[in-house]
TrEMBL record:
Domain of life: Bacteria
Alphabetical UniProt keywords: Cell cycle, Cell division, Coiled coil, Cytoplasm
Protein name per the record: Cell wall synthesis protein Wag31
Gene source species: Micromonospora thermarum
Pfam families documented for this protein: DivIVA (PF05103)
Compartment annotation: Cytoplasm
The UniProt record lists the keyword Cytoplasm: yes
Coiled coil: 35-62
Primary localization: cytoplasm
InterPro entries in UniProt: DivIVA_domain (IPR019933), DivIVA_fam (IPR007793)
Keyword Cell cycle carried by entry: yes
Length: 81
C-alpha cells in the first residue's frame, strides 16, 4: 500500500517496514534485502541533498557579498552607446 504524506520517506522507515504474510506470498528475505537496498539509496540521496543545500547556501552568500561589494559600480556611459 502506498501512503502519500507531506513527509519524505526516511531510510529507517523503509528498513522498519513490515508486511502481512499471505499464503504463497513473497519471500520475506528477498523483500527485506530489497528494502535494505532502497533504504541505502535513500540514505545516499538524503546526504547528497544536504550537500547540495549547503552548497547552494554558500553560493547565495558569496553572491550577496559580491553584490554588496559591487553595488556602487556604475557602467561607463561610453560602453552603453
Amino acid at each position: 500500500m502506498i501512503y502519500v504524506t507531506g513527509e519524505r520517506l526516511r531510510p529507517y522507515q523503509v528498513r522498519a517496514a513490515v508486511f502481512d504474510t499471505r499464503w504463497r506470498g513473497v519471500d520475506p528475505v528477498q523483500v527485506h534485502a530489497y528494502l535494505d537496498r532502497v533504504a541505502d539509496e535513500l540514505d545516499r540521496l538524503h546526504r547528497e541533498l544536504a550537500t547540495a543545500v549547503t552548497d547552494a547556501e554558500r553560493i547565495r552568500q558569496a553572491l550577496r557579498q559580491w553584490q554588496s561589494r559591487h553595488n556602487t559600480c556604475r557602467p561607463n556611459s561610453r560602453h552603453l552607446q
